[in-house]
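Example (one chain per record):
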Amino acid sequence: MSKAATVTMIETQAEGFFLVPFNRLHLSEKNVRKAKPNKVALAELAANIAQKGIRQNLIVEPSEQTEGYFAVLAGGRRWRAVEALVNAGTLDADYP
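Predicted structure:
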Protein backbone atom coordinates (compact mmCIF):
# COMPACT_ATOMS: atom_id res chain seq x y z
CA MET A 1 0.00 0.00 0.00
CA SER A 2 1.56 3.33 -0.99
CA LYS A 3 1.71 6.23 1.43
CA ALA A 4 -0.64 8.18 -0.83
CA ALA A 5 -3.19 5.38 -0.91
CA THR A 6 -6.42 5.72 0.97
CA VAL A 7 -6.77 3.54 4.04
CA THR A 8 -9.36 0.85 3.49
CA MET A 9 -11.06 0.03 6.73
CA ILE A 10 -13.03 -3.18 6.89
CA GLU A 11 -16.15 -2.85 8.99
CA THR A 12 -16.74 -5.85 11.17
CA GLN A 13 -20.08 -7.22 12.29
CA ALA A 14 -20.03 -5.06 15.41
CA GLU A 15 -21.00 -1.49 14.58
CA GLY A 16 -18.17 1.00 15.06
CA PHE A 17 -15.39 -1.58 14.84
CA PHE A 18 -12.89 -1.48 12.00
CA LEU A 19 -9.78 -3.41 11.03
CA VAL A 20 -6.88 -1.04 10.40
CA PRO A 21 -3.54 -2.29 9.05
CA PHE A 22 -0.67 -2.10 11.56
CA ASN A 23 1.35 0.09 9.21
CA ARG A 24 -1.37 2.76 9.54
CA LEU A 25 -1.08 2.95 13.33
CA HIS A 26 1.23 4.87 15.64
CA LEU A 27 1.25 5.36 19.39
CA SER A 28 -0.56 8.44 20.61
CA GLU A 29 0.97 10.80 23.13
CA LYS A 30 -2.41 10.43 24.84
CA ASN A 31 -1.77 6.70 25.40
CA VAL A 32 -2.37 5.94 29.07
CA ARG A 33 0.79 3.87 29.61
CA LYS A 34 3.81 6.11 30.07
CA ALA A 35 6.27 3.60 31.58
CA LYS A 36 8.56 1.56 29.36
CA PRO A 37 7.22 -1.97 28.91
CA ASN A 38 8.78 -4.94 30.67
CA LYS A 39 10.80 -6.79 27.99
CA VAL A 40 9.92 -10.27 29.27
CA ALA A 41 6.20 -9.49 29.53
CA LEU A 42 6.27 -7.91 26.06
CA ALA A 43 7.96 -11.00 24.58
CA GLU A 44 5.33 -13.21 26.23
CA LEU A 45 2.54 -11.03 24.84
CA ALA A 46 4.11 -11.12 21.37
CA ALA A 47 4.30 -14.92 21.50
CA ASN A 48 0.65 -15.08 22.54
CA ILE A 49 -0.40 -12.74 19.71
CA ALA A 50 1.65 -14.76 17.20
CA GLN A 51 -0.16 -17.91 18.30
CA LYS A 52 -3.71 -16.63 18.93
CA GLY A 53 -3.96 -13.17 17.35
CA ILE A 54 -5.05 -10.01 19.10
CA ARG A 55 -7.99 -10.88 21.33
CA GLN A 56 -8.74 -7.40 22.64
CA ASN A 57 -9.05 -4.54 20.19
CA LEU A 58 -7.00 -1.37 20.25
CA ILE A 59 -8.71 1.97 20.81
CA VAL A 60 -7.69 4.48 18.14
CA GLU A 61 -8.59 7.90 16.80
CA PRO A 62 -7.70 9.55 13.49
CA SER A 63 -4.13 10.79 13.65
CA GLU A 64 -3.61 14.50 14.17
CA GLN A 65 -0.13 14.09 12.63
CA THR A 66 -0.75 12.19 9.41
CA GLU A 67 -3.89 11.92 7.30
CA GLY A 68 -5.05 8.35 6.75
CA TYR A 69 -3.32 7.08 9.89
CA PHE A 70 -4.64 6.33 13.37
CA ALA A 71 -3.22 7.02 16.82
CA VAL A 72 -3.43 4.25 19.43
CA LEU A 73 -5.02 5.62 22.60
CA ALA A 74 -5.32 2.30 24.43
CA GLY A 75 -3.49 -0.91 23.60
CA GLY A 76 0.08 0.34 23.50
CA ARG A 77 1.51 -2.94 24.82
CA ARG A 78 -0.35 -4.88 22.12
CA TRP A 79 0.85 -2.36 19.51
CA ARG A 80 4.46 -2.81 20.69
CA ALA A 81 4.11 -6.60 20.64
CA VAL A 82 2.80 -6.53 17.07
CA GLU A 83 5.59 -4.10 16.15
CA ALA A 84 8.13 -6.64 17.45
CA LEU A 85 6.47 -9.40 15.41
CA VAL A 86 6.46 -7.24 12.27
CA ASN A 87 10.12 -6.32 12.79
CA ALA A 88 10.97 -10.02 13.24
CA GLY A 89 9.15 -10.90 10.01
CA THR A 90 6.57 -13.01 11.85
CA LEU A 91 3.67 -10.76 10.79
CA ASP A 92 3.23 -8.59 7.71
CA ALA A 93 3.29 -4.81 8.12
CA ASP A 94 -0.32 -4.65 6.96
CA TYR A 95 -1.49 -7.05 9.70
CA PRO A 96 -4.98 -5.91 10.76
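Caption: Residues 1-8 have pLDDT under 50 and may be disordered.
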